[in-house]
Amino acid sequence: MIISVASGKGGTGKTTVAVALAKAINYCQFIDYDVEAPNADLFLKPDIKHVKKITIRQPYFFTSSGKSFKTCSDFCHYNAVAAIGNDVIFFSELCHGCGGCMLVGPEGLIREKEVVIGEIRKGFCCPGINFLMGDLKPGSMRTTTIQSELEKNIDYDNYVIIDCPPGNSCSMVMAVKCSDFCILVTEPTPFGLNDLVISIDVLNKLKIPFGVIVNRFGIGNDEVINYCQSRNIKILAKIPNDLNIAKYYSQGLSLVDFDPTWQKKFTNIISDIDKEILQK
Question: Could you count the other beta carbons within 10 Å of the beta carbon of residue 117?
């Protein structure tokens, strides 16, 4: 079963919940899909055994030939190529490596080179967590390319916890689309509710069942609780607004380390999710 942990905004405690879930299960696969700012390794402390560089092929142009590359500019749907006379301005961060320039450009005047856009790291955390993370190279915009490589490694025969990127953009959709259930982590504030509603809309369109965990419970107001209750959305847990939890977090320790009773609470959450999935 694949459980994704998402949030409509950053800083709600998404990684806190994902790590606690993994530690509650103990024998599972954990994938950090937040490739632009991965940080689950700070808490699970995996022993990284394998690193794979992820590359795409990008063109370079022999502009000294005096030939026009306008056909490349006209072909590129991503506006990565701008042809000005016989010169070319190439925006590498927009290039998707489709190879179109080689097909439509002046014959023999375009070559391709491998460009590293990030890497995939695999490791292991005791007692039985297989750890996987993507790390996008700074400056690169190929987030979903790294995520696609992560997807190839999903162990569909195991429990899988996916720590999603924050927000509700394409990268979030890529992270949740394979999941059997999604846990939405929010906070009881107007901003938290606003982004929660957007996330719920995304999951409804994807037809992915979900539940909500309210983090920092005790601050803000009751609007998130009232919203969920009025729409029969299950609140899986309420994590209190406790300064000591933040202190543990700052030391790279998890919610389960802070209070071992949370391990049982998250185990019960997983059991409830199992039952809901089996009923569908």
Answer: 24
